[in-house]
Amino acid sequence: MSRDGSAGGTGRDADAARAEVLRRVRLAVGTQPPGVGVSRDYRGVGARPADDPVGLFVERLTDYRASAYRCGADEVGETIAGILGEHGRTRICVPHGLPARWTAPGWQVVGGDAPPDPVALDAFDGVVSGCALAIALTGTIVLDSGPGQGWRAVTLVPDYHLVVVRADQIVPAVPDAIARLDATRPMTWISGPSATSDIEFDRVEGVHGPRTLDVLVVAEGR
Amino acid sequence: MALFVTCLVDGLVPRVGAATVAVLERLGLDVAVPRRQTCCGQLHVNSGYPDQALALVRNHVAAFADAEAIVVASGSCVAAIRHQHVELARAAGDEGLAAAAAAVAARTYELSEFLVDVCGVLDVGAWFPHRVTLHQACHALRLLRTGDRARRLLDRVEGIELVDLPDADSCCGFGGTFALKNASVSAAMLADKLRAVDATGATVVTAGDASCLTHLGGGLSRAAAGARTVHLAEILAATRDRPWAPPGAPPHPRRRP
Amino acid sequence: MTVFLGLPTASPGVGNLHAATPFPTAAAEALRDDQLRRNLSHATRTIRGRRLQTVAELDDWEQLRAAGAAIKDDVLDHLDRYLLQLEQAVTARGGTVHWARDAAEANAIVVDLVRQAGATEVVKVKSMVTAEIGLNEALARGGIGAVETDLAELIVQLGRDHPSHILVPAIHRNRREIRDIFRREMVGVDPALGDEPAELVEAARAHLRQRFLTARVAVSGANFAIAETGTLAVVESEGNGRMCLTLPRTLITVMGIEKVLPSWRDLEVFLQLLPRSSTAERMNPYTSMWTGAVEGQEFHLVLLDNGRTATLADPAGRAALRCIRCSACLNVCPVYERTGGHAYGSVYPGPIGAVLTPQLTGVADHPHLPFASTLCGACFDACPVAIDIPRMLVHLRAQAVAAGARQRRLPTSEAAAMSVLGWLMSSPGRWSAALRALWLGRVLGRRTGWIRRLPPPMSAWTRSRDAPRPPRRPFRARGRRR
Question: Which tens digits make up the pLDDT trace of B111-159?
Fold first, then answer.
């Protein structure tokens, strides 16, 4: 096999290291014929249907001590305002592309073309975002930097995160999510608020990521 | 059918061999004990001396070549026969031996497997009026997947009072030469196991493997604990007519004809 | 350093893999620490029960496990191809790929990159591989500070301690000990800091907050790297990973070459296997994924060998490279539960460490580790990629014995005993005679049927347990059957 161009590192040492590691690998395994393919008889795409994906998603979310709210499609804006009021969160930032009817005056859109300044982000006490999809079985929300999700830092630095999930964005299980996502987009998968098990293997919520995660599930068809 | 006694039972606890024979004969089986048998070679393999085990595999396969079914009252020896013999033969490039070893392995059963799966028996007519707790020997549990067979056999023993052993499936710390090479870790595991046994208030702790029982028994003796070890085969062999008696006790009056 | 390993390709790994004290000695020492044993027992018990529950929720666990093993085996069989594919994909998306033959080379690459970025401090995501290569020490030698941001790593770093668990490096510490370390070492910490985990977590948050916001360079490991797309994935819980991976303008990721996965789809298997096996969660709180240089960052990927190709060269040991560092095997291991991780001497402790470390360094460097197990099999059952650790331990024991024999002229007493025993057992006549001779032992233990003291090497047995008194006659000498 020939060297296919743009390997990193610089100089002769880097080339030598690359060649040497590859040589060792080939010596160790020989030249193997291409794999015959992996048997995937586990439950794949569509093989774990949920009777009530929204209900399951909400149950799993709350199991991880996130809070879940539900509302109709025409009540999103007021519901968000209500939740934020409940938490006393006033300095709110939002990523680009969040539907205008979800937002309120005074909120700041951050992270346009240039990366947002982390210190500036730290001045907000909450962020409201959408998501790419959500996984019912694991209570997971996936952000893929699309519209209404923005730079990954935007949904990380503020201590409070409210995510809006449309019911039709909820897929049953992990394989369904993988099948729908574009691998090359920067992604964050979120399952509950930040947590740690580092002290005596006991789970404690709230470390460096947003210590409070609220999720608003918006019903379909209204 | 043939009995593989195992080196440990043969040399140190022959009463377990006698008990195994007694249970099988009570079920109407004709039990042969091939003279040629010695050891399965597990000790050598697991200690890092596979080359020396090869001669033992050869001997074992020859000793049991004609046996229809081979019963062993030790899960770890069965695991060695099933999982190590063929591999050793193959590593030595002896395909003939590998095939013969595979055939012997396919006809080899751990005692509780043989009774439950082959004979289809749960009640072997035993009587054992003692408070008993069962330690799940690792190799039977995880290498042979004997599951709850021993438990189900014990459940049918008349007069027995079975009590659950906390952490029954955690290792007793024997592990062959582990008990010597890492004696302090082994002793710590043993101490925890003995504490668990003590908590049950049982007077007898049983298992399907003489090696674990030798370890536990040595610990119980050193601790001068109230409980003692009795092999599963000994419990199943005990009847009202020929009750179990602690080794060293005066022999019971009615001797074999 | 040249060590003959009998394998032409073997280039041993270096770094924090080498035990200064043989396992039996270190283990005996650890066992004297009652607090350590209580901490370990509490923590491993907590996680064991929860793991079984979470795993039982998936009725296709065994199928996922088989698929995980098969995918990893495919990776190992075609590692050169997948590495090249990964390199191409990462490069195509603006990342830079570096190759390192060993720990020293990887460290040098990282130190250079940090200097080029003009930074004197880096924030770090917890990673086994950077612990393996001793990156923090190398950075320090280069005048660069490394701040561990994972809570447990922070506890270890502040306590000037060593990690003792793959997932929870400070598992050997309880809350009171952690409070004491924080009170002593954290600048500006509340001197009245309590020992509630929530309070300790809050202290760590405050301690690291400004560093995250102002850091210019981050260093991470990787849980997975997708050859097909060039996507890197890091799973974590606290958000320190997200902070490091997204805020600094330069990101350097070091990964062992075995971490590559062929396709994006493969993550559907591993993102189910890993969280349930490690923290017993359906999903870990955060997973970050990025492909090449994203969001204005500069991205460098360092691919590390450091003994992995030597491991790859042994078909019977290769499967150790399937390991996804979940640490389930540690949590179920009765030996680990009593000794803790330090006794293993390597950054990779427990059952997987006992097979991985000797393979990465060459078994002659760690002849004791393959014997640090009773072969109880709990690790194999718990492993989400079905690494048959007990079988591998037995395989490595033979290598350790052979390596020992090569180094010595005279056989050890154990080897001599095994020879004699093998010679006796290979002949039914000799074996019967030997067993009959056991009755000589009956001079001992006459009173109770148990022997209280035996000479070496059996004295190791009778130090803490009695030995059975031999019977009058062995079973087969009873002469009742053909």
Answer: 999 999 999 999 999 999 999 999 999 999 999 999 999 999 999 999 9
User: What average pLDDT does the segment C279-299 reach?
Assistant: 96
To the nearest 10°, the Cα dihedral for C362, C262, C327, C374?
-50
- Residue C400, C-beta contacts closer than 8 angstroms, at least 6 positions apart: B48, C358, C363, C364, C367, C368, C370, C371
Q: Which of C12, C105, C374 is nearest to B173 (CA)?
A: C374
The neighbour count for residue B31, using CB atoms within 10 Å, is 16
Q: How many other CB atoms are found less than 10 A from the CB of residue A207? A: 25
- Residues within 8 A of B (CB atoms), C 313-342 only: 334-335, 338-339
Strands, E assignment, C221-332: 224-226, 231-236, 250-256, 260-261, 286-291, 298-304
Number of continuous H segments (helices) and E segments (strands) in chain B: 14, 7
Smallest Cα distance from C316 to chain A, Å: 12
pLDDT at position C479 is 62
> Helix C151-158 and helix C175-185: axis angle, to 10°?
60
Mutate to test the interface with B, among C464, C478, C480, C482 (most CBs of B within 10 A): C464
- Looking up tokens 């093993």, which residue turns up? C69
Mutate to test the interface with C, among B5, B6, B21, B49 (most CBs of C within 10 A): B49
Q: Cα dist. C21→A33, B23, C188, C374 in Å? A: 43, 50, 37, 20
Query: Does the beta-carbon distance from A5 to C91 stay under 8 Å?
Result: yes
Which residues in chain C have Cβ-Cβ distances shorter than 8 Å to A187? Answer: 287-290
> Do chains C and B touch by CB distance (3+ pairs < 8 Å)?
yes
User: Å from A141 to nearest chain C CA?
Assistant: 10
- Note the maximum CA span of chain B: 55
pLDDT (tens digit, 9 = 90+) per residue, C174-197? 999 999 999 999 988 999 999 999
Full set of structural domains in chain C with CATH: 63-188+199-309 (3.40.50.10420)
The Cα of C190 is separated from the nearest Cα of chain B by a number of Å equal to 40
Chains linked to C by 3 or more Cβ pairs within 8 Å: A, B
Q: Given CB atoms, is B222 within the 8 Å cutoff of chain C?
A: yes
Predicted confidence band of residue A36 (pLDDT cuts 50, 70, 90) = confident
As to burial, measured by CB atoms within 10 angstroms (0-12 exposed, 13-18 middle, 19+ buried), residue C228 is middle
Please give the Cα distance from B54 to B23 (Å, whole number).
Answer: 32
Over range C400-405, report the average pLDDT.
Answer: 93
Distance from CA of C424 to the nearest CA of A (A): 40
**Tokens describing residue A91:** 């300095």
Name the burial class of residue A103, with classes exposed (0-12), middle (13-18) and buried (19+) by CB atoms within 10 angstroms of its CB. Answer: middle
HEC assignment per residue over C169-198 = CCCCCCHHHHHHHHHHHCCCCCCCCCCCHH
Give the residue among B214, B14, B20, B53 at the shortest CA–CA distance from B126.
Answer: B20
Given a cut of 90, whether residue C86 has pLDDT beyond it is yes
Is A206's Cβ below 8 Å from some Cβ in C? yes
* pLDDT band with cut points at 50, 70 and 90 for residue B253: very low
A with C: 3 or more CB pairs under 8 Å?
yes
Taking residues C387-400, what's their average pLDDT?
Answer: 97
Rounded to whole angstroms, the Cα distance separating B229 from B16 reads: 11
What pLDDT score does A34 carry? 76
pLDDT in tens, C236-275: 999 999 999 999 999 999 999 999 999 999 999 999 999 9
**Predicted confidence (pLDDT) at residue A144 exceeds the cutoff of 50:** yes
> What local confidence, expressed as pLDDT, does residue B29 receive?
97
